[in-house]
Design goal:
seven-stranded antiparallel sheet; about 170 residues; mainly beta; Pnp Oxidase, Chain A; two-stranded antiparallel sheet; about 10% helix; globular; 3 helices
Length: about 170
């Protein structure tokens, strides 16, 4: 079997097949925001689940979650791919993404943020801490409430890099 050298700046792609999420927050002025985040993973599960997200510190959603101390991790579906692209192409500083893109939503139950309609599920989280490394904020959150469709994993949208997306196939 032949292997090829992976450029060091692209090595992360080998570890990045995870499901993309929307980070949903609310600004101090009340404006809701959401931003796609492809670097996320579970951190712990006992006694409650914890999550880890890597978020660009220059983004409005990062500032919102630090200010509010809470956020929602929503699981967009493969059918929402175009909307994921759209919401990642503009800043929540400049406009209300929910209003601009006509995103239906419901209020989260335990935190002050909106959950986009049609997602496979969501996790409502309390911010535990942030570790800043360069321009990235490593966000640690504790799950306060989680809701999902049955077999939500089948609908998940996965992002590897620009131009490379996938959705789960049939279960093995």
């Amino acid at each position: 079997m032949d292997y090829f050298d992976v450029p060091l700046g692209k090595a992360y792609e080998l570890l990045n097949p995870g499901g993309l999420v929307w980070l949903c927050t609310r600004a101090e002025d009340g404006r809701p925001d959401l931003a796609p985040v492809s670097w996320n993973c579970p951190l712990d599960y006992e006694p409650v689940s914890k999550v880890l997200l890597v978020v660009d510190t220059s983004h409005r959603s990062y500032e919102n979650l630090v200010e509010a101390g809470e956020f929602v991790v929503a699981l967009p579906t493969a059918a929402q791919r175009a909307l994921v692209d759209e919401t990642g192409s503009v800043s929540g500083r400049d406009l209300d993404k929910y209003g601009h893109f006509g995103i239906g939503s419901r209020p989260a139950e335990t935190v002050d943020a909106l959950v986009p309609e049609g997602v496979a599920g969501w996790l409502e989280c309390r911010l535990l801490r942030v570790v800043v490394e360069g321009t990235s904020g490593v966000v640690f959150g504790e799950v306060l409430k989680a809701k999902a469709k049955a077999d939500a994993w089948k609908e998940r949208l996965h992002y590897v890099r620009e131009g490379l997306w996938f959705a789960p196939g049939p279960a093995l």
